[in-house]
Specification:
CATH architecture: 2-Layer Sandwich
Order of helices and strands: HHEHEEHEEH
CATH class: Alpha Beta
Distance between the termini: 32 Å
Number of strands: 5
CATH topology: Muramoyl-pentapeptide Carboxypeptidase, domain 2
Largest sheet: 5 strands, antiparallel
């Protein structure tokens, strides 16, 4: 099933990956998940402030508004995540149209392959890096395409305002 929220979030991605991600989602991911779970892009593009706020979790922002202790969710400071440049996305599974799941081993469609793994295989087949392969800080919901540029190089383009004309997307 196509998730309308995901389609909206795809539109925030860098123009260089937007159509590719749309095609991957509609033509490969949606047909692959035939059970009661669908893939949702929980995050695509993120502002520098949103990244700074996430980085603060568990470091300088220790508790949520209900007094619960927050853990560290990212090692990337603002400007050092591919999300700020529109070339990264995070997923979750939506079960029964309402409940978010990050269960990476669950086979909701009972085809013998965990649904999460199906999404990972699809993205990796298109040259996307999966955060679940990282050794120091695995990030299983995360996928990114770097185009051979480090986040430091992307930030330099951002600071130099090396944008696609009429946009806030850097030239890649």
């Amino acid at each position: 099933m196509i998730d309308q929220i995901t389609l909206q979030r795809i539109q925030t991605l860098h123009p260089k990956v937007r159509e590719e991600v749309h095609q991957i989602y509609v033509n490969e991911i949606v047909p692959a998940l035939t059970g009661n779970a669908t893939c949702r892009f929980a995050y695509t593009s993120r502002t520098f402030q949103e990244q700074a706020d996430l980085y603060a979790q568990g470091r300088t922002r220790l508790f949520d508004n209900k007094g619960r202790r927050l853990g560290i969710v990212t090692n990337a400071k603002a400007g050092f995540s591919y999300h700020q440049y529109g070339t990264a996305l995070d997923i979750c599974l939506i079960v029964d149209g309402k409940t978010a799941s990050w269960e990476t081993n669950k086979d909701f469609d009972r085809d013998g392959v965990a649904d999460w793994g199906e999404v990972v295989r699809i993205f990796k087949s298109h040259g996307w890096t999966w955060g679940g392969d990282w050794k120091n800080f695995p990030d299983r919901p995360h996928f990114e395409k770097t185009f051979g540029l480090s986040t430091k190089q992307m930030m330099a383009k951002w600071l130099a305002k090396d944008f696609i004309p009429g946009t806030n997307y850097i030239k890649i």
